[in-house]
Amino acid sequence: MDELPEQLVWEILGRVRETGDRNSVSLACKRLYELDKEQRIYLRVGCRLDPANEALASLCNRFPNLRKVEITYSGWMSKLGKQMDDQGLLVLSGNCPSLSDLTLSYCTFITDMGLSYLASCSKLSALKLNFTPRITGCGILSLVVGCRNLTILHLIRCLNVHSFEWLEYLGKLQIIEDLSIKNCRAIGEGDLIKLGPSWKKLKRLQFEVDANYRYMKVYDRSVDRWQRQWIPCENMQELSLVNCIISPGRGLACVLGKCLNLEKIHLDMCIGVRDSDIVSLAKKSSNLRSISLRVPSDVPLPLLMNNPLILTDESLKAIAQNCLMLETVRISFSGGEFPSFSSFTLNGILSVIKSCPVRELALDLVCSFNDVGMEALCSAQHLETLELVRCQEISDEGLQLVSQFPHLCVLRLSKCLGITDDGFKTLVGTYKLDLLAVEDCPQISKRAVHGAARSISFRKDLSWMY
User: Which residues of 367-380 are buried (b: 16+ CB within 10 A; e: fewer)?
Assistant: First the structure.
């Protein structure tokens, strides 16, 4: 190793990806130890960091070029030693001049003071906070004021973020591109209007409301600003909304239909979504490549009386006509959905399959999809992955048609009651599939799927039935 050129040794060490392997290599000789010090740019630490602040200071001194740091205390207990606190963030800000990406998960000792220390990290462009309960809006504000290059901000279960000055300030900066707010109870759909001009730069938005607090967030008068203010969403590429209430002409309903460059949409248990919303979305989002719809069934009666909330084939036909680049389709109904209330018929689903180059199709509790639908998939020239969950209308006859699917290579079955061992007779020995995954199907045995694919995953837990 001593005779190898510096550049070659650097290249060799750079190809060692696993942290444990890098640690071992760095102990082989002084030369590799010194090179690892310079080359290490990523560090992930957690419960074993003890004493936390001192150990972190030692690591930062050893690796001065750290750019990405992840600190997670998942599964932490007091007997494991004290967690890193605000002083640890002071160490990071003072010893990691290149820090650009920071993730803090379950760091329950971090407060607003710690975030104020991070405000001096001028290169910080990505911050992810997952369950940091002592952080408030004041701490977020001090950080966004100091970190003027922050383009990625994720807040997950930050329960005490009440102040919204940080949202308004972030909106004025017009630099945020990736914003994720999940289960932050004090932040509602209407508060997103405070982003103002930053909507123009936003490429990825994930917004998830805690389902237990969905109806407790009351719209204030600021929500009316959605109707008066132009929301520029032309650069939005990915939109994910979970447990949101979407009212006609208000809030997030103003965003749907304005995303001209949208590539991925995920609507999960969103109450209030109408056919007109999906039709408008489809007409404007010709670049759409992935759509995921999970339809709620626990719709309150007052909402049901005022709005036609059940999506119909009108939505799917609009997607089929306008989204000609669509590759991934996921449709799911919540557990309480009655078969007769299923909003999408087989014809609507097949219209998308026939018109779009769908490579991945996932159906969960879609009672309208049956053996006739499986027969129609025999002409799906692009389909490579099929996932069927709780699709009880599919029988052995339908599954046997899988051998005739032109390009299918991955099949996943879960909790399907109508399929037995006989359904795999046409697949066994053909090795047509690269992967077959069977989970919790009561009438399928492990013996029956042997030889049905190159790789097989099998699990049988029937507790879900009782």
Answer: bbbbbebbebbeeb
DSSP states along 337-357: --GGG----HHHHHHHHHHS-
Place of tokens 């001028």: 122
User: Could you tell me if residue 326 is left (phi over 0), alpha (psi between -120 and 50 degrees) or otherwise beta?
Assistant: beta
How many CB atoms are closer than 10 A to CB 445?
Answer: 14
Single out the residue of 74, 52, 62, 54 nearest to residue 26, CA to CA.
62
pTM for this one?
A: 0.87
Residue 5: asked if its preceding bond is cis (omega within 30°), the reply is no
Contacts of 34 (CB under 8 A, 6+ apart): none
**Tens digit of each residue's pLDDT (9 = 90 or more) over 413-456:** 999 999 999 999 999 999 999 999 999 999 999 999 999 999 99
Grouping H, G, I as helix, E, B as strand and the rest as coil, residue 150 is coil
Sequence-separated (6 or more) residues with CB below 8 Å from residue 247: 219, 253, 272
Q: What is the DSSP string of 240-283?
A: EEES-B--TTSGGGGTTT--TT--EEEEES-BT--HHHHHHHHH
Q: How far apart are CA 126 and CA 176, in angstroms?
A: 10
Partners of 456 in the β-ladder: 436
